[in-house]
C-alpha cells in the first residue's frame, strides 16, 4: 500500500452551481477521517469554504480543470492553501461510480498519496495580464465586425437608391 504524504488535504469537485469538498485528515499510516460538504459558487459560499479548509488545517487542495469553473475557486483559495489544478484525464475515477462526493473523495485520496501531477498556473499578475489581453482582442474584433456591418448597411442602401433611380449622378 502507498503511504500517505499529506495528513490534511482536500479534494474539490467543481461544478457550475456548486462545489463538493472532501477533507481527509489523519496520520500518514492511519486510515483517514473524511468529511464531505457542499458549497455554492457565489463569493460568500467560497469564502465559507476557505474558512472551513483553514479551520480543518488543510495545507493542500486539489481540483480538476473543468472548463472555466475552477478559476473563481482557485483565485479565492490560493491565498489560504496550496491549490493544485489536476488534468481531468490524469485523475479519472472508475466508470459507474461517478458522483460528486465520490469524485471529491477520489481527488483527496490521490492528493493525500502524492499521485497528482499539478498543472502549471501562472502567477496572478500574468493571469490578469492575459485576461486584459484577451478582452482587448475581443473588443478589437467587435469593433471590426460592427464597422463591417455598418458598411454593408450603407452599401445596401446605396444599391437600393441606385436601382430606384433616386440617386443623383455627379
UniProtKB/TrEMBL annotation:
Per UniProt, residues of the Transposase IS110-like N-terminal domain are 10-157
Q: Pfam families in the record, alphabetically? A: DEDD_Tnp_IS110
Q: Which GO terms describe its biological process?
A: DNA transposition
The molecular function GO annotations come to: DNA binding; transposase activity
Name the domain of life this protein comes from: Bacteria
Xref: NCBIfam families: transpos_IS110 (NF033542)
Q: What's the protein name?
A: Transposase
Which species expresses this protein natively? Granulicella aggregans
Amino acid at each position: 500500500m502507498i503511504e500517505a504524504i499529506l495528513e490534511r488535504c482536500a479534494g474539490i469537485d467543481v461544478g457550475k452551481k456548486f462545489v463538493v469538498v472532501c477533507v481527509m485528515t489523519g496520520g500518514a499510516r492511519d486510515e483517514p477521517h473524511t468529511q464531505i460538504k457542499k458549497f455554492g459558487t457565489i463569493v460568500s459560499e467560497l469564502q465559507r469554504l476557505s474558512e472551513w479548509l483553514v479551520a480543518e488545517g488543510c495545507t493542500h487542495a486539489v481540483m480538476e480543470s473543468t472548463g472555466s469553473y475552477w478559476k473563481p475557486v482557485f483565485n479565492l483559495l490560493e491565498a489560504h492553501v496550496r491549490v493544485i489544478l489536476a488534468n481531468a484525464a490524469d485523475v479519472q475515477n472508475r466508470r459507474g461510480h461517478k458522483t460528486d462526493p465520490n469524485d471529491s473523495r477520489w481527488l483527496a485520496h490521490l492528493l493525500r498519496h502524492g499521485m497528482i501531477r499539478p498543472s502549471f498556473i501562472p502567477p496572478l499578475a500574468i493571469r490578469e495580464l492575459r485576461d486584459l489581453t484577451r478582452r482587448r482582442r475581443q473588443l478589437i474584433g467587435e469593433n471590426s465586425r460592427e464597422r463591417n456591418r455598418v458598411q454593408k448597411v450603407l452599401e445596401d442602401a446605396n444599391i437600393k437608391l441606385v436601382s430606384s433611380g433616386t440617386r443623383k449622378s455627379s
